[in-house]
Design brief:
Residues 15-85 form the BTB domain. There is one protein chain. The chain is mainly alpha-helical. It has helices spanning 30-36, 38-47, 65-77, 88-98, 106-118, 122-131, 138-141, 144-161, 171-174, 180-192, 197-217, 222-235, 246-258, 263-275, 282-289, 300-327, 338-353, 361-368, 380-392, 398-405, 415-422, 429-444, 456-491, 498-520, 529-538, 544-547; strands at residues 17-21, 24-28, 55-58. It has a 3-stranded mixed β-sheet with strand order 2-1-3. The chain is elongated.
Length: 562
């Protein structure tokens, strides 16, 4: 039946009702449409008081347009038509707009179809939800959008638990046809059903992946790509609800920067990447830093902000952990080795960026210095990046080279790295001197490298040096005792006159004082009797009572050496 020229089977009945919807014209009969459509009945009554007069109405505001009205008119005339997942929502909205209150009205027929077929399978539920996108806000007011989104979420949860097709994640491709707003409603329904976070992450990643492929397919249509990307980022679930892989978030961030997305979108993605930065690889961050063609380094500021956000996040986490320990309360903690992982990744990234000849010093220092120096157990990797940058930029003066080297600490280099740095002519003099000074300091303290004193071999060498020093002192004492024995042996036969005895006695006392002073160095009670005795003996020719009135002169005893 031609909807524009003929709506009745008999050519003898003239039409008296004309419905215009945009460019479509429907010649109808008031006798058929008025009893079944309350909206048309009221419009006809308002247009004319003559029941036999022809009336023309404009229903361009009808949800679903001419297609939906055609099927509604067929239903009023008793003609056959098919309700499908594609037109069910439009027919439901059209029936509500036309106020079709017949006992067997169109709205009830559509509701039965949705309950029995339209929302019972995932593909058809997605189709119904997609068809509602052009029917807003009528579809939302009638609850069709909510019911369709909830049906999609239910089927997704069932598929995640009990897959009915292979591969198990086939359902993610079904979501690609939805608009970002419809996808957001599905995510909300999944949260309400307490879906597994992995299900949310898979759904969000798959949807964003397809959207990203569409964005990158035609780089010329920048405006539409920007709008699509911003809307996709807005509907992504939070990291707490669904942790999205770091590699994919880095790709999204690169696309956002390339398409010049809004600052809000870029900042949102930067924070998302920072939350999972310890899972990112050097290649992921390098992809963010490169331009759209992937050939030149352009977006180092974005990478620096991501690293800075990660560092702030770690510091805040450390503060909260200390607070929890102080209050003796539990809670999940971040990986304590995350900072070290990120520092190693940043050092490798800096080495890759250093090969770019047009990379400014401030850009290099901004990326390499974004991680605190104390986060690195060793600075060998960052020294490698610095050396590559200095090799790529040989025309730098001394001050510029010092600025490049400011990101590393020469005292945290390994022995091999310090040895290389001390012979590296590209380094500034200050860095070379720092490395040499550290080596000399370690040599003076008896260690061969930065951690040698902590090893078993280092402790053994230190003990050997102490033993050798003690042996030398013992040998010196032994020699002194041998000389004293020889002197005493020579003095025993001589027992002559007093004058002859006084001189040897003075020499003997002086010699004993020397021995006492030698032994006092080994005596743990320095300042004791040995020192006092020596002082008395040395003053043998004078009256010691005048100089030391409180010291009692010990009796002279004969020394015998066995």
């Amino acid at each position: 039946m031609d909807r524009i020229t003929q709506w009745v089977s008999s050519q003898d009945v003239p039409t008296d009702l004309t419905i215009r919807i945009a460019d479509s014209i429907f010649p109808l009969h008031k006798a058929v449409m008025v009893p079944r459509c309350g909206y048309i009945r009221r419009a006809v009554a308002a247009a004319t008081k003559d029941p036999s007069a022809a009336v023309e109405l404009d229903l361009s505001a009808l949800p679903g347009g001419a297609d939906a009205f055609e099927k509604a008119a067929r239903y009023c005339y008793g003609a056959n038509f098919e309700i499908t997942a594609r037109n069910a929502a439009a027919l439901r909205c059209a029936a509500a707009f036309l106020d079709m209150q017949h006992p067997a009205d169109l709205a009830r027929r559509v509701e039965e179809f949705l309950a029995q077929a339209g929302l019972r399978a995932l593909p058809s539920a997605v189709t119904v939800l997609r068809s509602c996108e052009a029917l807003l806000p009528a579809a939302a007011e009638l609850g069709v959008v909510r019911r369709a989104a909830d049906a999609v979420a239910l089927r997704i949860c069932n598929e995640a638990l009990f897959p009915t097709r292979t591969p198990p994640g086939w359902w993610t491709a079904e979501l690609a046809v939805l608009s970002p707003a419809s996808f957001q409603k599905v995510v909300t329904a999944l949260r309400c059903r307490r879906a597994d976070p992995r299900v949310l992450a898979n759904a969000a990643s798959a949807y964003a992946e397809l959207a990203l492929a569409e964005v990158l397919a035609d780089p010329r249509d920048r405006e539409d790509q920007r709008a699509l990307l911003e809307s996709v980022v807005d509907v992504l679930p939070s990291a707490a609800d669904a942790p999205i892989p770091a590699a994919f978030l880095c790709r999204l961030l690169h696309a956002a920067v390339t398409t010049e997305a809004s600052a809000k979108t870029c900042r949102d993605l930067e924070l998302r990447v920072a939350a999972v930065l310890d899972q990112a690889t050097t290649g992921d961050l390098l992809g963010v830093a490169l331009d759209g063609a992937g050939e030149r380094v352009r977006n180092t500021d974005t990478v620096r902000r991501v690293i800075a956000a990660f560092v702030e996040r770690q510091e805040a986490s450390s503060e909260s952990r200390r607070s929890r320990r102080a209050s003796l309360s539990g809670g999940a903690e971040l990986d304590p080795g995350a900072m070290e992982k990120v520092a190693r990744t940043v050092d490798e990234l800096a080495a890759e960026l250093a090969t770019e000849e047009s990379l400014a010093i401030s850009k290099f220092v901004g990326v390499a210095g974004a991680v605190p120096k104390e986060a690195r157990a060793s600075h060998d990797c960052v020294y490698r990046a610095v050396d590559i940058y200095l090799k790529t930029h040989p025309s730098l003066d001394e001050i510029e080279r010092e600025k490049v080297c400011s990101v590393m600490d020469p005292l945290k280099l390994s022995y091999q790295a310090r040895l290389h740095a001390s012979q590296n002519k590209r380094l500034p003099l200050q860095a070379v001197l720092s490395a040499l000074y550290y080596d000399q300091l370690k040599l003076r303290s008896g260690a061969d490298d930065g951690w040698d004193t902590q090893t078993a071999a280092g402790k053994a060498r230190a003990q050997a040096r102490a033993d050798a020093s003690l042996a030398r002192e013992n040998e010196a004492l032994r020699s002194e005792l041998a000389r004293m024995r020889a002197f005493v042996s020579g003095m025993q036969p001589s027992k002559g006159s007093g004058s002859s005895r006084s001189a040897p006695a003075a020499k003997k006392a002086s010699f004993l004082g020397s021995v006492s002073r030698t032994l006092s160095r080994l005596n743990p009670f320095k300042g004791g009797w040995a020192k006092d005795t020596a002082s008395i003996a040395d003053g043998g020719g004078r009256d010691s009572r005048d100089t030391m009135p409180h010291v009692v002169k010990p009796k002279r005893r004969r020394f015998s050496m066995s």
